[in-house]
Predict the structure of TLC domain containing 4.
Amino acid sequence: MDPFSQLILTISVTSFLTFQWLFHRVSPWMSMRISPGFLGLSDKQKVEWNSRTVSTFHALLVGIFCLYDRSHVSTAVLARFLLDLLLIFYYWKAIGDKFFVIHHLAALYAYYYVLGEGMLPYFANFRLLAEFSTPCVNQRWFFEVLGYPKSSRPNMANGVAMAVVFFMVRVAVMPVYYSRMYAVYGTEAFYLVPWGGRVAWICSSICLDIMNIMWMHKIARGCYKVLRSARQSKAAAPQENGKTD
């Protein structure tokens, strides 16, 4: 086995075991101390809570490494996806989702070319910048399961942050990403990538960005409705107080 393959295997195994430890040990221990409401959750909710806790940690770690263009960050993503699939199949009744499985299997196919063939690491890392939006999405679920009203300040602040970050790392970067892709298209280096790799690269990027635009529209509408509702409630409060007086 060449040194590159040994390094990938070492990072994969280490990352996988670390995420298992975080899911089964660290997240429950930490959550009980940070959020007392964790103890009142159902077993199904606790499984998803721990999964999202690990997801948040993983997203921040991967996002930070991607900023420095570390080529082996994709290995940690591979380990995380494998853990996700194992957890989904093991806790299918709690967090089973066929579309989530399809998404992860498609991602594993694409990252085969990144890790197995050493192709397109720059574009893979560029796509992984989207992980920066994951913590806000997970936090939204945490607030919801803990019973925070949508109009509460923490929920509203997280909603605005989610909309802004989601736009910055998934939508605003599209022109830069596709300009780089266009600059490579048709070159000698482009045709060195096998047909399957080009399909995984181009088609998955387009499909993912179509979904990103749809999600961005949904997030923006939701954020606008909550902010508008909060503003109307705030404006109505002085009037109600005046009538009471």
Q: What stands out?
A: The chain has one domain: 3-233.
